[in-house]
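worker-3 :: picked 4-hydroxy-tetrahydrodipicolinate synthase
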Amino acid sequence: MTTKPSPAPPFGRALCAMITPFTEAGALDLDGAQRLAAWLVDEGCDGLVLSGTTGESPTTTNAEKSELVRAVREAVQGRASVVAGVGTFDTRHTVELALAAEKAGADGLLVVAPYYSRPPQDAVEAHFREVADAAGLPLALYDIPARTGTRIEPETLIRLAEHPRIVAVKDCSYDFLGAQKVLARTELAYYAGCDEHNLALYAVGGAGYISTVANVVPARMRAVLDVFEAGDTPVAARLQQRATPLIESMMSAGLPGTVTAKALLNELGLPAGPVRAPLRPADREAVDRLLAVYQEFVTG
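worker-3 :: tokens ->
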């Protein structure tokens, strides 16, 4: 029995959900964004996702989002895909952002489920179809019900997979069975959106990850997939397990991943800057805890 080879992931395998650097005065730091983007690609990222959750998209303006795409595209010079987060709770606004991102040079769009208004599944489906019809770029649908209040149900994803420009999912549903159902019935590229699932989802046919933790350890996050791809599952598992304390400290210790990623990047001398309100920076005690876990991981 022969099996059909899996198609190449549409945006790469190892994607970073990149933070948005700001100056100390709180302005968009385009020079910093270019330096960080170039470093992330040099360290193994083959895709960068801008203006997502980690990129503080609710607090950046339409113009800033487009400027960020243009700057990062210039910095990576075709060495990595540039995926622009354009999702909002307003379909018309989402379409406007999608068209602006396309004009700015994005390679793809990340579109989150409409939040706050909690539309039913037929409305969620119509929302995504309208965005996909309006823009000429491939879409990754972002399923993160803990933040949006609205799930993109597996059956909805299966129907949406019929659209030629809906090609991927960033999965933060914590529904591993649901993800496998969609993988079995569609050709959607599934990206782990929660770092603890990177290897597990990849092992059952996922495309890779869109990682917050990759902001600070991009090469080590990629190594998990590379080793698995080379056929050494036990070593890949050990690498994933070794990353668990850092993943927990950055993502599940009471502070948002944006805050912890920026705290570590600032300590490492890489572009980050402050977070925008209503987020608040990590205090010194939290930063020291993060640094201790990070140092143990990178030197262990």
